[in-house]
Amino acid sequence: MDKLDVLFQIKLATPPVETQLMNSDPIEVEEAKLKLKGLAERLHREYGEFMSSEQFEWAKDDIDYFSFLLEEAVAHYKKLLTQDKEF
């Protein structure tokens, strides 16, 4: 699986977590926070060169910042593909 496929898998998993974070049930919110942390860890593990440790720490706790970093990574790798560069 190439890097862009992994990014799209992460991207597809994000909206349900975002919805769950807005739940009125505190247990659901805590589960969503754990899922967000897992997604951030996966993004950092797969693309550690793309984000600093500080960005990773912020992304684990902030769905909006996580989504921003994810979109930046997708745009970066799409650009590499259009330039026909390997990644």
What does this structure look like?
With 87 residues, the chain is mostly helical. The protein has one domain. The longest helix is centred in the middle third of the chain and has 21 residues, at 26-46. Helix 1 (3-21) runs antiparallel to helix 2 and helix 1 runs antiparallel to helix 4 (63-82). It has helices at 3-21, 26-46, 53-61, 63-82. The protein is elongated, with a radius of gyration of 14 Å. The mean pLDDT is 91.
Q: In angstroms, what is the radius of gyration? A: 14 Å
| DSSP summary, beta strand count | 0
Q: pLDDT under 50 segments (min length 5)?
A: none
What percentage of the residues does DSSP assign to strands (E)?
Answer: under 5%
General shape: elongated
Number of domains: 1
Mean pLDDT: 91
The CA-CA distance between the termini, in Å, is 12 Å
SSE run: HHHH
Structural class call reads mainly alpha
Q: Biggest sheet: strands, sense, closure? A: none
Number of helices: 4
The residue fraction in helices comes out at over 70%
Offer a concise description of the structure.
This protein has 87 residues and is mainly α.
Topology:
Blueprint: H1 3-21, H2 26-46, H3 53-61, H4 63-82
What descriptors fit this protein?
79% helix; 87 residues; mainly alpha; 4 helices; elongated
